[in-house]
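Researcher: Let's do a round of design. I'm pasting the structure tokens now; please hold your answer until I've finished.
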């Protein structure tokens, strides 16, 4: 066995490895499913896109490679409008989805996009797991009240 020594790589010294910020979470009473609530995400495949918060679904079944999974308590996003690019394509999974406020600002986390339904190779619906469920599952401390952000 040959024992090779790897070259030393010098990394910059960081004074702090953690960032302090508060995650603003969209609350159920702030959501409207009337076709007027806009959302945005930035994904690897489609870059930054906008969509419409369409439905809140108790579950969705996703089939992939002959296997099926059930995801509960999700949001469904529709594409904004043609000729806009679709809200989501394969490769965008894991993108954070945020509400767009009335003044056009991206302000509160809604969830994480994880799958889509396609017809004729065009995305029709995007499925988003709720950020509140993620916060609970991972025991993350997040602020649900809107407050000004302060950075150290």
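Researcher: That's everything. Go ahead.
Model: Designed sequence:
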């Amino acid at each position: 066995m040959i024992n090779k020594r790897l070259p030393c790589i010098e990394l910059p010294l960081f004074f702090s490895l953690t960032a302090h910020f508060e995650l603003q979470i969209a609350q159920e009473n702030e959501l409207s499913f009337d076709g007027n609530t806009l959302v945005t995400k930035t994904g690897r495949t489609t870059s930054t896109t906008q969509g419409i918060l369409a439905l809140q679904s108790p579950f969705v079944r996703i089939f992939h490679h002959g296997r099926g999974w059930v995801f509960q308590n999700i949001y469904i996003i529709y594409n904004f409008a043609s000729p806009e690019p679709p809200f989501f394509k394969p490769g965008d999974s894991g993108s954070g989805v945020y509400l767009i406020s009335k003044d056009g600002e991206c302000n509160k986390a809604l969830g994480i996009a994880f799958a889509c339904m396609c017809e004729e190779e065009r995305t029709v619906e995007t499925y988003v797991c709720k950020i509140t469920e993620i916060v609970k599952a991972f025991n993350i401390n997040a602020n649900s009240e809107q407050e000004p952000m302060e950075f150290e």
